[in-house]
C-alpha cells in the first residue's frame, strides 16, 4: 500500500469521493499544513492554525497509480478557487497536495499542469510540505456513511461530487 495526502475543501466531501475509488483501501480525514500541534476541528475551522482539512488515502499502486489518484482529486473539486470550495471559505479549505517524497512532488507538479490545461491556467492548487499529519476526531471519519446522510450541507454537496466521479472516472469507481 502507498499513501497520498490531498486537501480539497471539506474533508467530509473529499473522503466520500475517495471511498468510492478502486484501489483505495482506506481514507482518513485529518489536518495538515499548520503550526499548532494536535489541532481540534474547532481550532482548524477558525482559520487560525494554518491547517487544511485533508484526507490521507491508502491505496494499492497495482490498481491505481498516484498520478491517477491526483487526477481524480483535481477532477472532483474546483482547483481554481483560492482558499475555498463553494460556500466553505478560508485557508483551511484550500486546494493542496502534500507529497511524501520527491517522486510524489514531481507527479503533483505534472497533475497541476494537466489540470491547468483543462482549466485555462487558472489552477491555484498548491504543493506543500513536508508537514505533520493529525487525524481528525473520530466523529469525522466515514462521516458521509453516517451523520452526513442527514446533514443538509453534505446532501447538497457530496452527491454532485460522486456523480462527477462516476461520469468523469467511470473506470476508477468501485462496483
TrEMBL record:
- InterPro entries referenced in this protein's UniProt entry, alphabetically: Met_Sox_Rdtase_MsrA_dom, Met_Sox_Rdtase_MsrA_sf
Its keywords, alphabetically, are: Oxidoreductase
Report the protein's function: Has an important function as a repair enzyme for proteins that have been inactivated by oxidation. Catalyzes the reversible oxidation-reduction of methionine sulfoxide in proteins to methionine.
Broad class of enzyme this protein falls into? oxidoreductase
- Organism annotation: Novosphingobium rhizovicinum
Classification via HAMAP family: MsrA
Q: Peptide methionine sulphoxide reductase MsrA domain: which residues?
A: 3-154
| NCBIfam families, per the entry | msrA
Q: What Pfam families does the record tag this protein with? A: PMSR (PF01625)
Q: Which family does it belong to?
A: Belongs to the MsrA Met sulfoxide reductase family.
Q: What is its EC number?
A: 1.8.4.11
Kindly provide the name given to this protein in its UniProt entry.
Peptide methionine sulfoxide reductase MsrA
* Coiled-coil parts of chain: none
Q: Which residues form the active site?
A: 10
Q: Write down the SUPFAM superfamilies for this protein, in alphabetical order.
A: Peptide methionine sulfoxide reductase (SSF55068)
